Amino acid sequence: MVLLRNRKPGRIATLEEYKASGGYKALERALRELSPGDVCAMVLESGLQGRGGAGFPAGRKWMGIAPDAPKPRYLIANADEMEPGTFKDRVLLHADPHQVLEGMLIAGYAVGASQGIIFVRPAYGRIAEILEREVELARRANLVGPNILSSGFSMDIKVHRSGGRYICGEGTAQINAIMGLRPHPRETPPRTTEKGLWSLPTLLHNVETLACVPHIIANGPEWFKGLSRSPSGSGTKLYCVSGAVSRPGCYELPMGTPLREIIYQHGGGLRQGRHLKACLPGGASTRFLSPEELDVEMDFEGLRRIGNRLGTGAVIVLDDRTCMVKATLNLIRFFSRESCGWCTPCREGLNFARELLERLEEGSASFDYPEILRETARGLCNAYCPLAPGAAQPLESLLDLFAEEVMDHIKKGGCPMKQPGQQRG
Ligand SMILES: Cc1cc2nc3c(=O)[nH]c(=O)nc-3n(C[C@H](O)[C@H](O)[C@H](O)COP(=O)(O)O)c2cc1C
Ligand code: SF4
What is this structure's pTM? Predict the structure, then answer.
C-alpha cells in the first residue's frame, strides 16, 4: 500500500506519524536537490495521469506553465468529490492529510505557485476543519508559508468551502466559484495553466493525483510506473466499491487490476444469493458494463479500449433485482438537478430525459420512447461542458445493453420488476 499506508481506523495520521513514515522527505529533497524542471520531468516520466476523471498526464499539465509565465501562480487541490459512488478523496484526506499537503507543496514548487487552495465540498465540513488545523501545524513546522525549510521557496495554503454544486468540481467552474463568480464552466483554450484564477497561471489537480507526487519524488518515476499491473498504467489506484457487494469500501490496488478481482476478491462478491447484472466502472458518467466485460483492466487505457471510461474508479455494482430503467432514472435525476443551466442541450435535454424515463417506469410510455431517448442522449453531447455528455453515457448504454428490459416496460405498462402493491415512482 502506498497512498493508504498510514490509514487507521477512526482517526487521521498526525504530522509526527506522517513524518515517521517518511513524510515531507520528498519535499525536502525537491527543495534541496532538484530544480523545478527536474521535478516536472520526474512527474512526466512517472506516467502519472490525473485521477479526477479524465486521466490527463500530470507532467504535461505542469509543463504547460512556462518558467517565464506571469506571477503570482496558483495551485488548486480539487476535493469537491460529488461524483456518485466516489469517496476516495474523503478517505485519503481523513487518513493522511499531510500527504496531500506535501503533494501540493511539491507541485507548487515545480510550477512556481505561491498560493495553494483546497476546494472542499460542504458535505465534507469535518475535512475542511481537519485541513485548517493541519495546515496551521505545518505552518508552525516551517512546511507551509514563507521560506519553507529555509529553501527560499514560499507557498501558503488555504481551505475554500464550496457552495455545494456538482458543477463546482469541474476545473474552470471551480475557478469561477473561487473568484465569487457564477460557477459555470469556461471556454478552453485558454487552459487554466495559462489563464486560471484572476487570469493567472493555475495548476488544478484532484486530491488523489497530488497524493501520488511525494512518492514519485521519493522513490523515482520507474518505481511508480512499476506499481501498475497493466503496462499502460502507472501507480496504484483508489477504487471505491459500492452497491450490491458484501464488502463495500475504498481499496488501494495496483492500477490496472481486473474489475472481476476488484468486485469478487476485494469487494467480497455479490451479496448472498444475488447475481451481477451490471456495473458502472467509474462513477455516474460512465457506461454500464455487462458481466461479460468483467475482465477489463481497470486503467484509463483498458476502459478506453472497450469504449468506456475509468472516470473516478468508483465501481457501482448492480444485482439481478435491479431495474435498469430505474437505476438510470436515478442517475439522470442527479444530473438534471445538478445541471448549471448555462446551456440549452443540458438544461432542457436532461429534464426531458428524466421525464421520459419516469414515464417508462410509471407505464405511460409509447413504443417510440427508446428512439426518442436515443435522440435526446445524442443531443446531450452538444452541450457546453462534459457534464451532459457524461450523463449520456449510462443512458446510451441502457438502450444498447438493456433494450429488451426497456421494451418490457412499454409492453407491460410499467416496471416489470415492481412487486404487486408496491408504490410507483
Ligand atoms: C461535472 C464535472 C464535475 C467534476 N468534479 C470533479 C471533482 O469533484 N473532483 C475532481 O478532482 N475533478 C472533477 N472533475 C474533473 C475536473 O474538471 C478536472 O479535470 C480535474 O479536477 C483535474 O485534476 P486531475 O488532472 O488531477 O485529474 C469534474 C469534471 C466535470 C465535468
Ligand atoms: S453542460 Fe450542463 S453543466 Fe455544463 S455548462 Fe451546459 S448547462 Fe452547465
Answer: 0.96
